[in-house]
Structures are given as C-alpha cells and as structure tokens.
Specification:
Oligomer: single chain
Shape: globular
Strand content: 5-15%
Number of domains: 2
Length: about 325
C-alpha cells in the first residue's frame, strides 16, 4: 500500500466533492470501500454487527472530517485510519472486550462476542490480503482478540494489510519505535495462540474449500439428518476443540467430552431428533446450518450454524453459533 505525493484523479474528485458538500458524490466514493473496511473492523472487533456499526461510524466521521483530507494520503488509507481509530474508541468504552491474558485463555471460550462473517459480504475484488482465508478464519480472529487494542491495530495494519511502519505510526499517532515494539509483542502472542498454523499472513493462501472439506461438511449434515451418533463421532478428531457461542462455559477439548455434552443436552432424543441441514461458508470456512423441527411444529426452523476447521479429513475445531434472528447470515429462517 503506497501513497502518491500528488492526489490521484480519485482523490482530487473526492476533495472536490468534500469542498462542494456534495453528499451524494461523497457517499458514492466512500461506499466502494465499505466491504473491505467492514472486514477490517471485524478483525478488530470479532463481531459482525459491531463491524457494521463501526463502518457506518467511519463514514460519518469521514464526512465530518472531510475538510481535513488534502490528498496527501490515498483515500483508502485515510478511511482505514479513521476506521481503526473508531474501533479503538469503541474498545475503550467496552469493559466486556478486555483481552483475556493468553496464559489463561482457552481457544474460543472467552470470546463470547465472536460472530461468524458471511462470505457474501467479503469484498469481490480484494486488494492485497484483505480477505486471505487464513486472516478471516475464526481461529485467527480469536487469536487477534488476545492482543491489547492498540497492539491489535498495529498487527493488523502491519502484518495483515502490509502498511509500512511509518504509515501505521502516523495513523495511530505513535512513534515508529513504538509500532515496531508493539508488532514484535503481537507476533509472539500470535505464535502462542496459533502454534500449528502458518504465520506468514502476507503470502497468498488458497481461498477455496478442498474436496475433503466439502465431503466432511456434507457428512456432518447427513449424520444429523439420520440421527447417526456413531457417524457423527467418526468425523471428529479425538482432540476436537468445541465451543458453543454465545454460551459461557461450553468449551471442551476432546471429541468424547463434546459428544457426551451433546447427548446429555438431548441430541437425537425427542425434540432434537428431526433435523435438516444445508452446507454453506462463513469466514471462508465450511459450515453447516442446522434446522430443527419439534413435534408440535410443521416447519424446520433455523437453529444453529456449525463452523468447521477440517484437518486431514477430520473436524479439528467446531464452533457453534446460535443462528436464529441473524438475517445477515443470509440463511432462510425455515425449511
């Protein structure tokens, strides 16, 4: 990401729109950046609905600050700067978003505000690594939440978006030395949180599902529809990590514990034995949307969405989310 010394045609047009108080033209030029800014806010906040709100806040702040834009930086860079600081201001006000110390954090268990990100809302023409699969997957988003907010911002700007240290320092009103130090600390935490993952976020990664992933998610749906507990168990790695959000205290780290919990909760027993499912994708990950029909209801109603991380044909991580009342997932409420 580089900034020209003179305004480009886009920046010049934006300056003209700002000076003329041309709200329609201003909105048109900023709107084209909505999806990538929303992904940026999501990485900062791990919550789709908050990311929507903060993206809108970014556009409001941009309008209010329009006179300050002189074209010395690219419009995109300017908007990212505003979005980053809007997220930092949001985090300052939210006591429930304080990072859990890494030494006591269990994967997914404390990030109760985590929400899945629908693939249909990802940018269609991503620049650089804005939506590289490995930087939008749930494990990455959870790991980023372990970082203090300003350290988090530095890490995303530097290692995900590839900003030079001087540009990140200017955006955050820090010294280059402070940015470098924060990035070093952030990288240590990310290595601790994602020990088995590739940590070179700037290198392109495949964004399409593998044949194995597609087969496993279909089998996961099929096992529910057939009430096949053994078949479901066979899809799980012994060291499965499972969490159900936004419920507290549901994190487990073995397949046996997960299945025992599902059975004790009524899975495949009366009221939880009539399922339909559809395969989908969120966070560029395979997912199954499960619909349940109770004995007194003629329709299958959207119940949960299970997001799967699949390794060597087995489910290594399963993150379940309450899917009801979330139209932004773009799933039909009934089948």
């Amino acid at each position: 990401m580089t900034d020209a010394s003179l305004p480009s045609a886009d920046e010049a047009a934006f300056i003209a729109a700002a000076r003329a108080d041309d709200t329609a033209r201003f909105a048109l030029m900023t709107e084209r950046h909505r999806r990538e800014l929303q992904v940026h806010c999501y990485r900062m906040l791990a919550n789709y609905e908050d990311a929507q709100d903060l993206t809108q806040e970014t556009f409001l702040r941009a309008w209010n600050k329009r006179a300050s834009f002189q074209g010395h930086a690219a419009l995109r860079t300017w908007l990212y700067r505003i979005a980053t600081n809007a997220c930092l201001d949001f985090l300052k006000k939210r006591n429930d978003r304080t990072p859990v110390p890494t030494e006591v954090a269990d994967v997914g268990s404390e990030v109760l505000y985590l929400q899945p990100y629908p693939d249909r809302m990802l940018p269609e023409d991503p620049q650089e690594s804005v939506v590289t699969r490995e930087t939008i997957e749930l494990a990455f988003i959870v790991a980023v939440q372990r970082l203090p907010p300003r350290q988090r911002a530095v890490f995303i700007l530097r290692d995900v978006l590839g900003w030079p240290a001087a540009l990140a320092a200017d955006a955050l009103e820090l010294t280059v030395a402070s940015v470098t130090s924060a990035l070093q600390r952030a990288r240590v935490t990310m290595r601790e949180q994602l020990p088995d993952r590739r940590l070179d976020w700037r290198r392109p990664a495949p964004d399409e599902l593998s044949d194995d992933e597609r087969a496993v998610v279909r089998s996961y749906v099929d096992a529910h529809e057939r009430n096949d507990l053994d078949g479901l168990m066979s899809l799980l790695r012994d060291d499965l990590r499972f969490v159900m959000l936004p419920e507290a205290g549901t994190s487990v780290i073995t397949a046996k514990d997960a299945v025992d919990g599902w059975v004790s909760g009524g899975l495949f027993q009366r009221g939880y034995d009539d399922w339909r499912g559809v395969t989908t994708m969120v966070n560029r990950m395979p997912a199954a949307a499960l619909y349940r029909r109770t004995p007194d209801d003629p329709e299958y109603r959207l119940f949960t969405i299970a997001v799967l991380h699949i390794v060597d044909g087995k489910i290594a991580e399963l993150t379940g989310f309450d899917a009801a009342g979330k139209p932004w997932l773009d799933l039909p409420p009934t089948l």
